[in-house]
Specification:
Layout (H helix, E strand, L loop, with lengths): L1 H10 L6 E4 L4 E3 L2 E3 L4 E4 L1 H5 L2 H4 L15 H4 L20 H18 E5 L7 E4 L1 E4 L5 E5 L1
Antiparallel strand pairs: 1-4, 2-3, 5-8, 6-7
Bound molecules: protoporphyrin IX containing FE (HEM).
Protoporphyrin IX containing FE binds next to helix 5.
Organism: Artemisia annua (Sweet wormwood)
InterPro entries: Cyt_P450 (IPR001128), Cyt_P450_CS (IPR017972), Cyt_P450_E_grp-I (IPR002401), Cyt_P450_sf (IPR036396), Cytochrome_P450_Monooxygen (IPR050665)
GO molecular function: heme binding; iron ion binding; monooxygenase activity; oxidoreductase activity, acting on paired donors, with incorporation or reduction of molecular oxygen
Length: 142
């Protein structure tokens, strides 16, 4: 379940941009950034970089996480940042993952489900990334 959630967060990070402001002059690669420069870091872009994830970057493949995030990102921790990175990383990340697993487990204990043929895949950003037309699923009690 962890792998499925991680792969979902990779392909569709709810937060597609995090922002940082440079506090003092800093070298970043071959650039020198003056204080107050604003940096926009896109989890969406990083998560879809074939140089990190390979040519199957756009495919939903939860098993890429089977040996953990470090292995999936070739030891590049900043390549998987659905909850941001560093000292200001999301404080609710563990809570959010636990909550999603509990909710899914409660559904799976009672139902089988499949995607409705009416579903139209159209992720959209309205503050967070979400399915534009909702996600229609067909539940079957077990
Ligand atoms: C799937 C669910 C969630 C996602 C994808 C998410 C994502 C993020 C991201 C990307 C940041 C910015 C991190 C950075 O700048 O490096 C953030 C910050 C934050 N998140 Fe979340 N978040 C989620 C759920 C939650 C929940 C459930 C809570 C509270 C219970 C929460 C509370 C916060 C707070 C307080 C911050 C600001 C942390 C700081 O600036 O020090 N988040 N989140």
């Amino acid at each position: 379940m962890n792998m499925i959630l991680e792969e979902s967060l990779r392909l569709y990070p709810p937060v597609i941009l995090v922002k940082r402001r440079v506090a003092r002059e800093v070298r970043l690669g071959n650039m020198t950034l003056p204080p107050s420069t604003e940096l926009y870091i896109s989890p969406l872009a990083v998560h879809h970089d074939p140089k990190i994830w390979g040519n199957d970057v756009h495919l939903f493949k939860p098993d890429r996480f089977e040996c953990g995030i470090a292995k999936a990102t070739n030891n590049t921790p900043a390549a998987f940042i659905p909850f941001g990175f560093g000292p200001r990383i999301c404080v609710g990340s563990n809570f959010a993952m636990a909550e999603a697993k509990i909710a899914l487990a409660m559904i799976l204990q009672r139902f089988k489900f499949k995607l409705s043929p009416n579903y139209v895949h159209s992720p959209i950003q309205v503050i967070m990334v979400k399915p534009q037309h909702g996600v229609q699923i067909i539940l079957e009690a077990i």
